[in-house]
Every structure is written in structure tokens, then in C-alpha cells.
């Protein structure tokens, strides 16, 4: 079978949904509890999951392989417990499951297929009106050098002053668009938004260390202080085969340490899924499960 070439594949999602009931009860309970009431750190790590037979790591995310679909079905069966799996057209053609592998041509870019540069802290698709609520990363093949880094607003908040927090709650920040979403169009800064929203005691956060700027000097300073607090109070996970990390994208930013790929078929290989909790919100900018929002001039 050609793995991970499931562009807008409703049949795959339905098949995975039917398998959700076959997941171990303890695993289902933990995931459903996390979805309903995310833990304070906004991250759930599950270990020892079966990923099936693995051929060599592909050289590109969309390269066909001889891999079976065991890991795709596992990933989507867990995703179904949290909401609705979706793809984004610019992300690997809108696949509902994407292969995340090191690619030579993007080794030093701020993208998921980079390797030799630190992937800076970011909310997944911070600029997107229909960004995912949950991000799932399933490790098929690990690399001991590569640390997936996560930082929660709940861990950073106690280290910020009241004036900085108040600034972050105001619409004084703008976010550019990831280049992968532009298809050659000119980048644009989005409308001013707040970095923090909701309750002051347990806010939601949208943050991108690379793409976000303040609209004034005080806002820029607040953004810098938030970035420093997140960096100072983050956690790192070296993912191994069979590990699945679930990230609450409203609460946690993530990144990755640099690592040195070999490009010999044994490199790090993750599979990624996005979940939204309100599929209807993207109705006018979606084909099936593929969100098609257009950005740029």
C-alpha cells in the first residue's frame, strides 16, 4: 500500500472511527479525559503503541512507500476521540495524515521538515482562522538527538508581570503567514489579535516566535517576555517508536531541537494529524476534510 497519500480521504477516517472502539479502554479513557479537560501542561504522552511494519524512511513527505496503514489507522482512531481530523491543502496536499521526515532542501528552514536548525516555538497554524485545536504526533522511527519541545501558557504565566499579561490580552499583535501556505503569493500580516484570550487564570494562547510581531514597542516587549518565559519553562521529549504525543494547540506551543539526519533510510519519521472541534466553522473554506483557505496577495 502507498502510505500517507490520503488526500481528503473520508473513507480512511471512517475506517479509523470504526476501530476506535477496539482501542484499549484505559487509552480511550485517558484521551477522552484529556480532550474534555486538558491537563495543566496541555500535553499527553502515550507510549508503546503498535506502528506496524516500517520500510525505510521516505525522502519526501509524500513519497509512496510499501508501508501498511496500521499507524495511520491508529493515529486517526485516537484523533476521532478528540474531534474531527482535518487536513490543510498547503500541508502535504491536504493529507489527513502527514509524514514528517527530514528533507535536504528544507534543513535550515522554519518548517516541520527541517533538521539542522531549532524549530522555534509556535502555535500550529497561528495565523489560520481554522487552526487545529489538537495536534497529534506519532513517532514511527526516532532520533536520540531530536527533542520535541513543548511549553504551556500555564507554566509561563506566573513568571510574567501583570502589565505584560494585560498587554498580551489586548489586540496589539499581528501574525504573518507560513510560507508553505502562500504558493508564491506575497506574504501579509493578519489583522491585530490578542495573544491571550479567555480567562486570566487559564487563558488560551496563540503565539509564533518567528511570524508574530507587536503593533507597538510595548507589545513587542510583551511578546519577547512571553517567549523568554516559555523558553525558560519548557519540557522536552525524545520521541521513540510507538510514542504518541497529543498537544492542546490552544494552550501549548511546540518546537524541536536540531538534529543531524543521515538520509540513509533510518532517519526520524513522525506522522502528524490535526483535529478541530468545530468542523462546520470551516464549511465555506473546506472540501470534504481538506481546509482550503487562501492567504496572501
Low-confidence stretches: 1-8
Cα-based radius of gyration, to the nearest Å = 18 Å
* CATH architecture field: 4-Layer Sandwich
What is the global morphology? globular
**CATH superfamily placement:** Clavaminate synthase-like
Instruction: Kindly provide the name of the CATH class.
Output: Alpha Beta
Which structural class do the helices and strands define? alpha+beta
Chain-averaged pLDDT: 93
Largest sheet: 8 strands, mixed
Q: What is the helix/strand order?
A: HHEHEEEEEHHEEEEHEEEEEE
Strand element count: 16
Look up the CATH topology.
Double-stranded beta-helix
Count, helices:
6
* Helical content band: 10-25%
Distance between the ends: 39 Å
Instruction: Tell me the quaternary state.
Output: single chain
Task: Explain what this protein looks like in three dimensions.
The structure is a single chain. The chain has 297 residues and is of the alpha+beta class. It has one domain: Clavaminate synthase-like (Double-stranded beta-helix, 4-Layer Sandwich), CATH 3.60.130.10. The chain is 20% helix and 22% strand. It has 6 helices and 16 strands. The protein has helices spanning 10-19, 25-36, 70-79, 153-156, 162-168, 217-232, and strands at residues 43-46, 84-88, 98-100, 119-122, 134-141, 148-152, 173-175, 196-197, 204-205, 212-214, 235-237, 244-248, 252-256, 269-276, 286-287, 290-291. Helix 5 (162-168) packs across helix 6 (217-232). It is globular and about 55 Å long. The N and C termini lie far apart (39 Å). 44% of the residues are buried. The model is unreliable at 1-8 (pLDDT under 50).
